[in-house]
Amino acid sequence: MIINEPKKYLNDYEVDSVRNAYENRGRWYYYLVKEGLEQGLPLEFARDAMRRAGYFQYESRFKGMTTIDEFAKEFFTYGVEKVNEGEIVRQTEDELEIDLGYCPLVAAWQKLTDDEKYMADICDICMDMDRGMAEKMGWEMDLKNTIASGCGKCTMCFKKK
User: Fold this and answer.
1) pLDDT at 43
2) pTM for the whole thing?
3) Pair 151, 1: CB distance under 8 Å
């Protein structure tokens, strides 16, 4: 069962505004994937698109970064910290692990479907953006837990190879 309730920054106008924008992005993503499937495309089309979006993120935000420290400073934004209720749970020279306690994308999907397997699938695909970004850096990103699969939190782990 998916549990996805914000616990922090409740009734904070700025955080709520960004959460609403992220929910809107979640609806766009949901409907784009749904339409692709209805047109006969395999679900992997979305994975390929998200991976390419990750390559773009690398080029526009992370290119040239070589240390976990500089990556963490750029990656751990207002959105990750406040909107997603994120916290850095471990940071070493070779690894960055972040827990996210809330996901506005999942909140949007929960309003559109009760198909938890589908939500878990499109969540994992959505995370290919971060996997693609890490790949371009020569790193990897493991997704240890997801809210969409019923874990109660997302755990992202970026590792240098």
Assistant:
1) 93
2) 0.94
3) no
